[in-house]
Write a structure and sequence with these properties.
The protein is about 55% helix and about 10% strand. Helix 1 crosses helix 3 and helix 2 packs across helix 3.
Length: about 170
């Protein structure tokens, strides 16, 4: 589940089926949801220590807030330690473009500068999540009747990401 909450009516269905003894894989198949999403919401339900009737009596908004506050991503966004890590990444990205600079060196610099820094593996994981390429879109206004020629350019960046860009020329 890529950081998106599902409809709370489906969450209530997950919990209802789980309390009736239906397996997680069967719930996943019945509701057409990924198995890991089913597993996550069952874990959140069990961690909440609420009964099924309490869950059903909650409004969708309150239930969503409850599960959002219990999810690990919510805690990371409010964690000052995580915020200091994320604020280090733009500087790190600039430094990594220089010749001979490695992630290992950057992690050591980060770790020495903070008293309670992340371990190297967590540091690299969060950097990879922060640095993920995004799907960017650009729109070009085109007047009817003018010609465009389409050329496709391939751009290969230092970290071996390939981008294919359509270039339109008049």
């Amino acid at each position: 589940m890529p950081n998106n909450l599902i409809h709370m009516s489906k969450v209530k269905s997950i919990i209802k089926l789980y309390t009736k003894g239906v397996s997680k894989s069967s719930i996943s198949a019945r509701l057409s949801l990924p198995r890991n999403s089913v597993k996550k919401y069952i874990q959140l339900f069990l961690a909440s220590n609420l009964s099924i009737t309490n869950i059903y009596n909650m409004s969708d908004t309150n239930l969503e807030q409850l599960f959002l506050s219990m999810s690990s991503r919510f805690h990371l966004d409010n964690d000052p330690r995580f915020q200091s890590l994320v604020s280090f990444f733009p500087k790190m990205e600039k430094e990594l473009k220089k010749k001979g600079v490695t992630k290992e060196q950057q992690w050591r610099e980060y770790f020495q500068s903070t008293s309670e820094g992340y371990s190297r593996s967590q540091f690299c994981y969060h950097y990879a999540q922060w640095h993920k390429p995004r799907n960017h879109k650009m729109y070009i206004e085109h007047k009817i009747g003018t010609k465009f020629h389409n050329k496709i350019l391939t751009i290969i960046l230092v970290n071996n990401y390939k981008f294919y860009i359509s270039l339109f020329l008049k």
